[in-house]
Write a structure and sequence with these properties.
The structure holds two protein chains of two kinds. Chain A is α/β, with parallel strands linked by helices. Chain A is globular and about 95 Å long. Chain A starts with a helix and ends in a 12-residue tail after the last strand. Classes of the chains: A alpha/beta, B alpha+beta.
Chain lengths: ~775, ~450
């Protein structure tokens, strides 16, 4: 009771803790002994750009405006169970006005506290409580995260560089062993969404550590114990192999420092000499090793090679992850690595929510993590306290948030990848590469003011624009600072993730497309130059045509507002397509496969179908991509132009591209005919990023690639061909084209500003296609 | 009795001490020593006919040693001879005699070395044979301080040899198991209400002597046990008192009864040796075995934690405390979390869900007694050993699991708990077996290695 009174007296920053609560539709609660998690789905009203295909009187090629669109967002909030009453009151107070208040008056509740708090929830919220099985919910939650969230799973390597090794996307989630370490331990073998079985467990779990730890040291909390353990040395308490043998026991391969008997030295009569730190350290190792052993033995017995650990004992805590990982590594002789989950604390809440969410069809959709609204992996309070000054001002250590957005359309792995399971999109892992991390974090922070200015300009007439822009800055800089302290907070840290975080933070504060006007103007300008450019190209043939097409692609690609150095050029307003061509590196380029590309075009049968992933609006798409596509079309190759589903920077979006292609068709018969005959199609990529993650492309696009038997993939721009996919292997020929517009990166790749990358690779499929014989 | 005559081991043992071998036998005295992390175990063979020993000085020294060892049941403050385990009328190295079983804390090794010097040990044999980690750790001390060379033998070889030797020579009484009572109301077995629970035996027949009903000068040995409240009847009553309010009596096997087990054809079987730590061996034949696993949560963990939690000082004291405690005051049960059984996964409400789980609460911590804490520690360690043993058995596809080691000494609670747990969780597929000489097999095997005795098959 005193706990609750204490909690009540705390002034909680509630708006931040339960975002979007007024639009909440459905709730689920997971109440653990120590932590409670509230899950709710809510309509999220966001702004989206809308593109009108009606040239207005001023001669714009199309009109843009903003509209409101409604999407579904899942919110998860984790807090200490002692706040549960306060939080229920707050939820109630904020829902009472909502027409959809807990629509059918049923709330799914799971977790050990489901019994204890059932009446409280029923009376406070006036709803019916459905208790859901804890382990079932954990499994549903775990399956859901593993299928939807890249880098959900990771291996933990203490003092490694980095400590976290994220596992990307697992194409074969099942089977696996889930070890949930709560007060006790359950081991569940999971073979599918519906087939799972508790194959074992042990009563020696987190409760044992906590209970015994308090008895032995008078510490008060779990985290106090971990802090003690952090500073302890178990060797004064445990009997090691060398204490018995005087050294290693070589014939059994037992090293001298292996623990032979936990607490074995504590039997000596002078027990007072033991430090509590050492005792707790010994206890932690004892329990971790035991759980690790049991998990390993069960995994081996059931032929399982993936073991995920979760539960209060783990809680993302470095020390417990370390001891568990160590134990699994020891028992399996390095064969199996312990896997942990970024959102491990939410498994039960997600599962409980899914159980009650039939009508949202949560499992039929694909979901993406909203980086803007999620807390990310946080180190426990005590260890990051010292860095607190670096963290954003709205940082609330007692509350952790996680948000998922429902994607409008399903996404899946690109069928042109050689091996989706080994594909990793990002070229540089900023977790490993400290120089690169420091450079990019600073680079992105330095460019925040420009982005803020542009955002304000894009909605200058709105009264709250400055306020929203300020919030954006605070949020995004906060994320960057968090990443500076803990680079692993949101999964793999890459240039892609930093770009995506920026876009998502902008969208969060209703700046869906700050570049929309700029994109129209640049495309208009480029369109005016198109006919002349096409006429010039038509005078060329053979390799000289191929060179000019390539140079067109490259020059177009210079027009990139995402690159700091380029932005300064473009801001002068006098930078032309011709200027861009002159800036390009002279041949031989940094990577120069133009001759083999040209030979391929001239001396082998034309490609059946090329999938071209487009980059920027304006000159890039119109003077670069369109002539290139026109040439392929003229050779009889079908072309799929793939554009982002959602806006980011000045990248052309699907909706814009549909209109732009029509405008081009008005000027160019080849395009016009191809469009009419469906030889040229525009499709959405399913992405909203300047980079390209080929694990998640739009289902329709993936189908088209297969149906049209695409045998060439073209990736254009730094984001899609350098920051990501530079080393991606494809099952068909690939062309990666980009101009290096960042001096630091160019230098790193052995080039300079405006160095050219023209990388043509033949299919890496080992089976030769018939046409190649 | 008729069975004994036709035992294959009988013929084997007689062949192994044939005259030819006797000539090559090493000199007296016959010792086997197993120096473990916590306890040192010593097996001493007392010859009844020592005629062949040459030299009066050696003879005198040997007599001194024999008199010292057999004339006492306690040595110094901590050395103890387990009189109830002695095996009489054994034939070793051409001699008939008695095997004595002695133990002392390894921390007292210096006192033992001093004793060996005082008894002029080095004037006799040139070597003493030892196994266990201490054989390596103390090798130099023996060499430098007593001029004794330690002959080191592999720990696991000795363990397995010792098991086979003692079982063969203590047939029908060495190996036993705990069985569900035929009638749940029955509290007696063979009309001996107390004897079935501790160190007595279902069979008193045969050539061996056991403590209960034995006419040996072992009263002091018994009283030693009595001093630590480990008389069987007392323990039984204490446990019985608990049954009244224990909702999970059915989960601890408290009412199970001791039965002899025929161990003549045991292969394959698992040996779980619970000393300070735990080693688990899979044994496929007398000579084919391997260490399959182990855990650091063993007897040393039980005693170490009990010392820290209750301030007790000895294993006997810790087990005594445990016998009077209630782990439900300390452990969280399934029903404490789920209000009853956890039906979805078929877990009964009275199973322990979290060992020491109640101790997260300050109030519960204040309510728990030393006895409760000791019991919870014992149950935690025991169940954990059982659980790991079970998985190893399943992995190796083995049905018989033999628990040995000094953790089981005067510890019927753990034995019954292990017996119950093996049966319950394996749906009756696994059988937990126990051996009377609990912790002495390594030392026995070591003695056999010294005598170069063949492996009894």
């Amino acid at each position: 009771m005193t706990h609750q009174n204490y909690a009540r007296s705390i002034e909680l920053p509630k708006e931040q803790i339960f975002p979007n609560l007024k639009n909440a539709k459905r709730f689920a609660i997971d109440i653990g002994g120590s932590l409670a998690k509230v899950a709710y789905s809510a309509d999220w009203h966001r702004r989206a750009p809308i593109v009108y295909d009606e040239p207005d009187t001023e001669g714009s090629i199309y009109n843009v405006a903003e509209t409101e669109e409604t999407m579904v967002r899942l919110h998860f909030v984790k807090f200490e169970t002692k706040y549960i009453e306060t939080c229920l009151d707050f939820i109630l107070a904020n829902l009472i006005d909502s027409k959809e208040f807990i629509r059918d008056k049923i709330i799914k509740v799971t977790g050990g506290g489901a019994y204890k708090y059932k009446d409280l929830i029923t009376s406070r919220l006036g709803v019916q409580v459905d208790k859901e099985d804890e382990i079932e919910c954990l499994i549903y939650g775990c399956n859901f995260l593993l299928k939807n969230i890249p880098d959900e799973a990771f291996i933990y390597l203490r003092h490694g560089n980095p400590d976290y090794k994220f596992q990307g996307v697992d194409q074969d989630v099942f089977p696996y062993l889930l070890v949930n370490i709560g007060s006790g331990v359950s081991l569940v073998k999971v073979e599918s969404d519906t087939k799972f079985e508790r194959i074992g467990g042990t009563s020696t779990g987190g409760g044992t550590f906590w209970g015994l730890g308090c008895l032995l040291t008078q510490a008060k909390s779990f985290d106090d114990l971990l802090e003690l353990a952090e500073n302890g040395d178990h060797r004064s308490v445990d009997m090691l192999v060398k204490d018995i043998y005087g050294g290693a026991y070589n014939s059994l391969g037992l090293g001298a420092d292996i623990i032979a008997s936990s607490f074995g030295k504590a039997t000596r009569l002078d027990g007072d000499r033991f430090q509590k730190e050492d005792i707790v350290r010994s206890l932690l190792l004892c329990i971790s090793n035991d759980i690790g052993q049991i998990a390993y033995l069960q995994a081996r017995l059931h032929g399982l090679t993936k073991i995920y650990f979760g539960g209060y004992f783990i809680r993302g805590h470095p020390l417990t992850m370390h001891t568990i990982a160590f134990a699994i590594n020891y028992w399996s002789k390095g064969e199996i690595k312990a896997l942990f989950l970024r959102h491990e604390g939410y498994l039960g809440a997600i599962g409980a929510f899914l159980k009650g969410a039939n009508e949202e069809d949560a499992e039929k959709y694909c979901w993406g993590e909203n980086l803007a609204g999620s807390s990310g992996l946080t180190s426990p309070n005590w260890s990051c306290a010292q860095e607190e000054q670096l963290l954003p001002t709205n940082f609330t250590p007692n509350f952790d948030l996680f948000e998922l957005d429902r994607l409008e359309r399903p996404v899946l792995a690109c069928p042109l990848l050689l091996d989706p399971s080994s594909y990793f999109p990002d070229t540089v892992d900023l977790m490993y590469d400290i120089d690169a991390r420091m450079y990019w974090l600073k680079c992105f922070e330095d460019s925040v003011e420009k982005t803020v200015a542009l955002a304000i300009k894009s909605q200058a007439e709105e009264v709250d624009v400055e306020e929203r822009a300020r919030k954006f800055r605070e949020k995004y800089v906060g994320k960057l600072r968090t990443l500076l302290v803990n680079p692993c907070a949101y999964g793999s840290l890459t240039v892609r993730s930093l770009l995506d975080t920026s876009s998502q933070c902008l969208a969060e504060f209703l700046f869906p497309d700050p570049y929309s006007q700029q994109k129209v103007q640049e495309s208009e300008l480029a369109l005016k130059q198109l006919s002349g450019h096409l006429s010039y190209l038509d005078t060329l043939s053979g390799i000289s045509l191929h060179i000019q097409l390539a140079r067109g692609l490259l020059a177009g690609n210079v027009f990139d507002w995402g690159a700091k150095e380029i932005r300064e050029l473009l801001e002068t307003g006098h930078f032309s397509f011709k200027d861009a061509q002159n800036k390009l590196q002279e041949r031989p380029w940094l990577i120069d496969d133009l001759d083999s590309w040209s030979n391929r075009l001239m001396f082998q049968p034309p490609y059946r179908c090329a999938a071209i992933f487009c980059d920027n609006s304006g000159a890039d798409i119109i003077l670069g991509i369109m002539p290139f596509a026109r040439h392929l079309l003229s050779m009889g190759t079908e072309v799929i132009l793939c554009a982002n589903s959602r806006p980011t920077l000045n990248d052309v979006t699907y909706k814009e591209l549909v209109i732009l292609v029509k405008r081009v068709a008005e000027l160019c018969p080849v395009i016009s005919i191809a469009l009419a005959r469906y030889k040229l199609v525009v499709m959405e990529s399913g992405q909203g990023s300047p980079c390209l993650d080929l694990r998640f492309i739009d289902q329709g696009l993936a189908k088209a690639m297969v149906d049209r038997k695409a045998d060439l993939i073209v990736l254009e721009g730094m984001g899609r061909a350098v920051h990501t996919n530079l080393y991606a292997a494809f099952a068909c020929d690939s062309l990666k084209v980009a101009v290096l517009k960042n001096r630091w990166l160019a230098n790193r790749l052995g080039g300079d500003m405006f160095s050219v990358m023209f990388k043509f690779e033949r299919s890496q499929k080992t089976v030769a296609s018939p046409s190649m014989t | 009795m008729a069975d004994l005559v036709s035992l294959p081991c009988d013929s084997l043992s007689s062949s192994s001490d044939s005259d030819v071998e006797a000539e090559t036998l090493p000199s007296m005295p016959y010792f086997g020593m197993d120096i473990g992390g916590t306890l040192t175990k010593l097996v001493y063979f007392e010859p009844l006919d020592v005629s062949e020993v040459e030299g009066p000085e050696e003879k005198e020294t040997l007599r001194t040693i024999r008199k010292y060892l057999t004339g006492n049941v306690a040595y110094g403050k901590t050395g103890i001879r387990d009189v109830h385990l002695e095996m009489r009328n054994q034939k070793l190295g051409g001699c008939r005699g008695t095997l004595h079983f002695i133990r002392f804390p390894t921390s007292e090794m210096q006192a033992f070395i001093d004793l060996a010097r005082a008894k002029n040990f080095s004037s006799l044999a040139s070597a003493i044979c030892a196994t266990g980690g201490g054989a390596f750790k103390f090798e130099k001390d023996f060499q430098e301080q007593v001029n004794l060379q330690l002959h080191k033998y592999d720990e696991l070889d000795c363990l397995i040899r010792g098991i086979h030797f003692i079982d063969r020579h203590n047939y029908n009484v060495e190996c036993y198991y705990w069985a569900k009572p035929p009638d749940s109301n029955s509290q007696t077995v063979d009309g001996q209400p107390s004897s079935n629970l501790n160190h007595s035996h279902c069979s008193q027949s045969g050539k061996n002597h056991y403590v209960n009903g034995s006419s040996q000068p072992d009263h002091s040995g018994t009283s030693q046990l009595d001093q630590s409240n480990f008389n069987g009847s007392q323990q039984y009553i204490l446990e019985k008192d608990h049954l009244g309010d224990d909702c999970d009596s059915s989960h601890s096997g408290l009412d199970w009864v001791k039965k002899p087990f025929d161990f003549r054809n045991p292969y394959p079987y698992l040996v779980v040796n619970v000393g300070s730590g735990v080693s688990i061996l899979a044994v496929y034949s007398p000579t084919n075995y391997k260490r399959v696993s182990g855990t650091s949560l063993g007897g040393g963990t039980f005693l170490g934690l009990c010392c820290l939690l209750t301030g007790c000082e000895t294993f006997e004291e810790a087990v005594d405390l445990a016998s009077r405690g209630d782990n439900h005051k300390v452990d969280r049960l399934v029903q404490d979390i789920y209000g009853g059984d956890y039906r979805r996964f078929n877990l009964k409400g009275d199973l322990v869900a979290s060992s020491f789980g109640h101790m997260m609460s300050k109030q519960r911590r204040e309510e728990a007694t030393r006895e409760d804490l000791a019991k919870a520690t014992l149950v935690t360690i025991t169940n954990n050993i059982g659980s790991i043993a079970r998985m190893c058995a399943a992995t190796e596809k083995i049905e018989r699991v033999v628990f040995v080691g000094n953790f089981l000494r005067v510890n019927t609670i753990s034995m019954k708990l292990l017996a119950y747990a093996m049966d319950y969780w394996s749906y009756g597929a696994l059988k937990a077996l126990f051996l009377e000489h609990e912790g002495y097999f390594g030392a026995m095997g070591c003695l056999m290695e010294y005598l170069k005795l063949g492996h009894p098959s």
